[in-house]
Fold:
Amino acid sequence: MITLIKRRGSYYFLAVTLATLYLYSQSANITTSVFSIAVTFAMPLALAAMVGIMCERTGIVNIGIEGTLLLSSFVAFYVAIAAKSIVIGFLVAMATGVAMSLLLALMSVTWKMDQIIAGTILNILATGLTSFFYIQGNMLPNMFRQKPIPGLSNLPFFGDVLFKHGLLMYIGFVVIITLYYGLFHTPWGLRTRAVGEHPSSADTAGVSVSRMRYVNVAIAGAIGGLCGSYLVLELVGSWNRGFTAGKGFTALALMIFGRWNPMGALAAAMFFGLAQAGANQLMINGTVNIPPQFVGILPYVMTIIVLAISAGKVRPPAAEGQPYEKGQS
Amino acid sequence: MSKLIDEVKDSRRKYDVGSWIVPIIAVVTAMLVASVLMMAQGLDPMLAYKSLFTTAFGSSEGIAATLGKATPLVLSGLAVTLGLRAGLFNIGVQGQLLTGALASAWAGYALTNLPPLVHIALALAFGFFFGAIVGAIAGYLKAFRGVHEVITTIMLNSIVMGIVDYLASNPFKEPDQALTRTPQILDSVRLPMFGNFPSGFFLAAALAFLMWWILGFTTTGFRFNTVGRNRFAAWYAGISYKKTIFFAMLFSGGIAGLGGAVETLGITYRFEPAFNLGLGFDGITIALLGRVHPVGIIPGAILIGGMRAGAANMQFDAGVAPELVDLLLAMILFFVTAPLISRFFKNSSNRSLTGGWGN
Structure:
């Protein structure tokens, strides 16, 4: 099965590369701009999926990603305005993400509450707080502007697509790669996965299950804060009620689609980012008129299909969703 | 074997209605915390609450508006309750409700020349049927493919939102109208009023009592409860786990769809995607506030319906944003589920209702 998926993955990669080459030979400018826009669509989804991966790999179901993004983007916006500094806004947003995560950890690790309810509380709480304190008509002092990376940004195609973005985008890439490396190639990653798969074994081996869960969920919250800041301080530049528009739920789909692997989720995010950017481009050209709603629901439909077909083969971390009690088998 | 015994022991506590004091204290605590927030903004919480509750419950028009707001909430709470009784967490009530609302709106304006009673029954049936389809998809995937219902219902919520938005802005759109909405439903399909009061509420309340009777006193209800409490025991008793799960999800979706239909036919008279936002998630709060009891959710729905009905006036009288109600709901959900309060009453019923995505 794994080899099958690996092979499928490389087919997908090959197909995308060939299609890109063809399109690039037809129209270099448009292809480059579509890919570049696709990356800006994909990054927030990928980062939000990282929040889910961090939590679930360590055994905590987090359906409160949407709430974390909503509240941290809100805080990023208003703190940046109040402090007249987008950097302070970004840092406080990360702290907000951590605070939301700690609340989740408190409910699900310490109080052993139902984790789905805990996540629902995060979502409703963020909606309530942000819409209660929302004030119309504010402007950011400035935004994270495009900062091309010297040298790399001169590369054909890749330079424009990957290396002409703002600071938060670059941080996002570093976070995703670090997370991938960390999860699969460091002792910390091994412990994290052990706690998510079989907590009592990890406990026997001397790993503190609840400490591991607290720390990882907190890191996930910081990534959520980064994602919220990216959305508001680099991509959009304004905030309104319901700002995140379900990105936290799309993230859950991408997490499953990428099989709880940071690289898989990044590839999935890129795929849907491309679908969205491509559909927009086709609409601008007037070639095909795809209703934007249909592009929007693509990740969800594909996730349900994948889950329905490969039921039992797409396997989440085994201990996820269950509070750990010492001495359980 | 010991695991099985533990499960049985646990299950005895799982739906222990326990102390009715917990929900009441949760509501009061949430209101206290909210008043601190209001004071921090320099507002007067006493004035706000007074305005909120006199608007909602102080006059017969107020009560009528409250019951109107409470109607879909009773049904979405019932949908969540039915799921939880069978051990399913239906987060998809939002999507099922939207589907039902749109389907009944279509039946309400597109089908013409029907006698009122037939038309109403047909439009309600449309709401139920399409909500049930959305629920049944999740039920099928859970029962026969082992896909966790929480993940499918989250996905289905977003899918339904997209499709409904598309339908309301293209094929079902009111002609020559800038807003995304369907035409108004015909007069023949509007739910009648009992004096001042919307008849939809009585329909919803009757359904709540019906469900209480079914869950409490019939074999069907026994099946649902047994599967929800312990699927191994259910299997041992010869109850089909898969069939029960499937039908629980189907009926849960249908009731949610009915909630959307009653909202369309009794209150809004047309479908507009923004109308029904949040009703499904309020259903989760209401179900847990009512201790997962079909009749217990009625007071919770009336309370929250009253808050929604009085929120606009509260802004007028006390300058408090109506979104305070969302904040209150979040805190109510937190206090009613977090073991903070129940610990004082030695009611340790904070057991997980759901597992991971796996099974």
